[in-house]
Amino acid sequence: MEGLTSPILTVEQAVERSSFFEIPSFINPQPAGDILKGMDEADQKIMSAEIRLGSQYHFCLETQTAMAVPEEDNCMVVYSSTQCPETAHQNLAKCLGLPEHNIRVITRRVGGGFGGKALKAMTVATACALAAYKLRRPVRIYNNRKTDMLTAGGRHPMKITYSVGFKNDGKVTALHLDILINGGMDADVSPMIPNDLVGALKKYDWGALSFDVKVCKTNQSSRTAMSPPGEVQGTYIAEAVIENVASHLKMDVDSVRSRNLHSFESLCCFYKGCAGEPEELTLPSLWDKVAQSSGYYRRTETIKEFNQVNKWHKRGISRIPLVHKVSVRATPGKVSILSDGSVSVEVGGIELGQGLWTKAKRMAAFGLSSIRCEGSSDLLRKVRVVQTDSLSLTQGGWTAGSTTSESSCAAVKLCCDVLVERLIPLKERLEQQMGPAGMHSVNLSASCYFVPDFDAMNYLIYGAAVSEYR
Question: Which CATH class is domain 331-433+442-451?
Answer without folding.
Answer: alpha beta
